[in-house]
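Input (Cytochrome c domain-containing protein):
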Amino acid sequence: MRKVLISSAIVLLLPAAMSLADEAKAPPPWDERVTRALDFDTVAKQGPAATEQLIDLGQRLFEGKFTLKEGAGRPEATQAIVPTKRRRPAQTMFQRMAGLDANACASCHNVPFAGGAGDFTANVFVSEGFESADFDTSDPQFSNERGTNSMFGAGLIELLAREMTADLRAQRSAALKKARAEGAPVTQPLETKGVTFGKLVAHPDGSLDVSAVEGIDHDLTLRPFSQKGVFASLRQFTVNAMNQHHGMQPVERFGTEWTGTADFDGDGVEDELSRGQISALVAWQATLPPPGRKTDLPEEWQTAAAHGEELFSKTGCAECHRPSLPLDSLTFLDPGPYEGAGTLRPSDVEAPIAIDFSSFEWVKTLPRDDRGRVLVPLFGDLKRHRIADAARDTLGNELLSQRFVARDVFLTAELWGIGSTAPYGHRGDLTTLDEVIEAHGGEATEARKTYSALPEEEKQSIIAFLRSLEITQ
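Output:
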């Protein structure tokens, strides 16, 4: 059972010279500020002994409400990923389109607990300003409205993505080596953990034809976070979100080393989030236990759910919503191997923070295959698919593409925990599981048609199965 901290007082993140366990100079319990200094290398050197405390501190950061005194707001900065100054007069007010839009991470990620999904009222707006400051605007025509994703099981998802990325890149390297050795083009199918990503052609001169690569960026980096699949790591996701939603600028992207100033947004507060604080947030999110299955079901529900799981596979839903993927390593390193520009990288630190997931009780409940690998029951494939078309546009109601991902293409939603995360769809405007299944188009058309043709009783069996997949804590 995961420990949940509930406190109206936010007391956290001790100065770098102190041990995480040393609370001698902790602020008074009535202090309204959320943040305190935390040095990354200090945490990394303490090793496993610091893990539990780091996670606890991350939870306090996730749930705490940021204040102006510690840097909330970005009066002279935009929401753009690349640090960019505003072209218009400074703005400090909360507003929904270009942000700020939340006091705390848990303001949106709170269903059924902190770290979970969010209701329609917690939707965010991903505007072109997220990519380009030219569109840092409150005009809805430059925004996509998105529902809040659950973060439960996120660490396992990132570990899967890291291993799959490594597999695909190894296949690319092998193809290039063979093409050079044989002096002829080599066609390489791309497959990892049973998921196919099309193919590429390697040429003897070292060039690649990636026109047939599917469901992943051409650099073969699997990006498992966001509904479009554009963030490779929890760290990248967190760094972006802190500036976008709260106006809290992480040093690793907005600090003096990169922008020439310790107060890029000009709010009078320097070095608003340290590398250690971002690591604490990552640690808490990464160690959120995966969703499970409801066990206290009446016999009628158990029978229906068991039949519904069989039908789920027979209708073709499990082709993308795969019941599980195998995971070899349970060691989570922060920063990870595939961090992007503007995010702390392994080469930037003396040593990464290592969290051994095998030490957590919830890992012991996960099934394993005959090779001893953990089977992560995500009901997903970490791959992008086109799931909308002209006839079924409910799931593709995007106004603009994000990071070159087409408007009708989305990452397969992991269904673990879906019984706890209503409403559904990418903007939370679908109220039932039946509605969201019927909204599928594109590559999911045949599966949706098969479901639609089922007798009502069998449809309800599939719903009973999906409703049994819950976030537990």
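Confidence is low (pLDDT under 50) at residues 3-18.
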